[in-house]
Amino acid sequence: MVIWITGLPSSGKTTLAQQLVILFEKNRIPCEHIDSDQIRKVFSNTGYSKSARNEHTKMVGYWASRLEHFGVVPIVSLISPYEESRNYARRACSDFFEIHLTTALTVCESRDPKGLYKKARNGEIREFTGISAPYEAPTNAELELDTGTLSICDSTRLIVNHLNTRSGKYLWNSCLK
Amino acid sequence: MVIWITGLPSSGKTTLAQQLVILFEKNRIPCEHIDSDQIRKVFSNTGYSKSARNEHTKMVGYWASRLEHFGVVPIVSLISPYEESRNYARRACSDFFEIHLTTALTVCESRDPKGLYKKARNGEIREFTGISAPYEAPTNAELELDTGTLSICDSTRLIVNHLNTRSGKYLWNSCLK
Questions:
Q1: What is the complex's ipTM, to 2 decimals?
Q2: Residues of A acting as catalytic residues
Q3: Which residues face B100 on adjacent strands?
């Protein structure tokens, strides 16, 4: 299975992915957290244009599918704003579980832990998703979560419920720290 | 372990990688053949400039290291002409086994199964490694093989001997088809 978390900047993708990683590790299920920030540190020449983002998303989708092939569960936290490359990832993977964080732009912007929205509003950052670049919301996500109203714990529980329903393979520890 | 085969176009990288895949599969060792042609089909927007090739090699090196982390042996057949990005791959991986096919340009060009050298000579293909783009030969490869004088079988045996010496983990079937 590939777990793919998409949403606006500061919608909580990385936080939720980290919760899932803890759960998978507790259950000794091999998983790989593929996080946008970390991947962009490695591929620092990747730009933010539509084509660069599509290539980037495609790259993650392709390699997630290869990890999945060997029984590793990739947990992807990536804005992945374009439908085209998200659909590429869906097609590449065998069991694609897309989680769309539907959290409103105003909520995400009010969090702004890295001050990026502020910079985007000031024009210091260009092509910023939600402000100066589009976010094409998924129409076929397996799960939608509004982290503006749901706590991290509740969001994680909803994901886990879905995973349990999808597959009898997963045993979960319901106790989250 | 990561097996990384580098060399000029038509030096025999893919052929040798395919032999290794057969051997690994016979020995039930999970492996992933990461072949240039196949990867370029997926990432068709990747160009052939120095920076594009470096990014491409780096990408393969990074994801090979992640597969290695989960016990899969990536078998990479990639021209990977630049030292900088080959060294990135070496650093990213835990156990990097670089095989340099030292086969002479004249030999590679005389094979030319896809007619690419001919096109490069005619100027129909630009930035072609060995003709109009450089190949920075490795100075620290674990193994050098001249496929101009060694048969496929002999080359494979030499690789297998090296693998057996490096690691007691591998059991090999010496019978190659």
A1: 0.92
A2: 80
A3: B6, B144
